[in-house]
Amino acid sequence: MLNNIETKWLYDFISLEEYRSFTLAAEKRNISQSSFSRRIRALETAIGFELFDRNATPLKLTEQGRVFHAHVRNTLDDLE
């Protein structure tokens, strides 16, 4: 069940997918890398699966992350 997901986490997720770097994405979102990382982990905890393969270089989405990305994009487009 999706509980307590913050909209900013969804924007963080989109940013991380775009930049493929926690450091660069955090910089673009104007927050510290450690806070950014915690927010991505909080999103993953809330949805119940990992979004990124952190062992891949560069960082890449998991299969579930790719599906989630499409849904998040549509949701954020609707919100905007």
Structural topology:
Blueprint: H1 7-19, H2 22-28, H3 33-47, E1 52-53, E2 60-61, H4 63-79
Helix pairs in contact: 1-2, 1-3, 1-4, 2-3
Short description:
With 80 residues, the protein is mostly helical. It has four helices and two strands.
Tell me what the structure shows:
- The protein contains four helices and two strands, in the order H-H-H-E-E-H.
- The protein is mainly alpha-helical and 80 residues long.
- It has a two-stranded antiparallel ribbon.
- Strand 1 and strand 2 (60-61) form a beta hairpin.
- Helix 1 (7-19) crosses helix 2, helix 1 (7-19) packs across helix 3 (33-47) and helix 2 packs across helix 3 (33-47).
Question: Which features would summarize this protein structure in a list?
Answer:
80 residues, mainly alpha, two-stranded antiparallel ribbon, 4 helices
Radius of gyration, in Å, reads 12 Å
Binned, the helix content reads 55-70%
Shape: globular
How confident overall, as mean pLDDT?
A: 93
Give a short account of the largest sheet. Answer: 2 strands, antiparallel
**Uncertain regions spanning at least 5 consecutive residues:** none
Q: What is the terminal separation in angstroms?
A: 24 Å
> How are strands sequenced across the largest beta sheet?
1-2
- The helix count comes to 4
SSE ordering = HHHEEH
Q: How many β-strands, per DSSP? A: 2
In what range is the share of β-strand residues? 5-15%
Determine the structural class based on helices, strands and strand pairing: mainly alpha
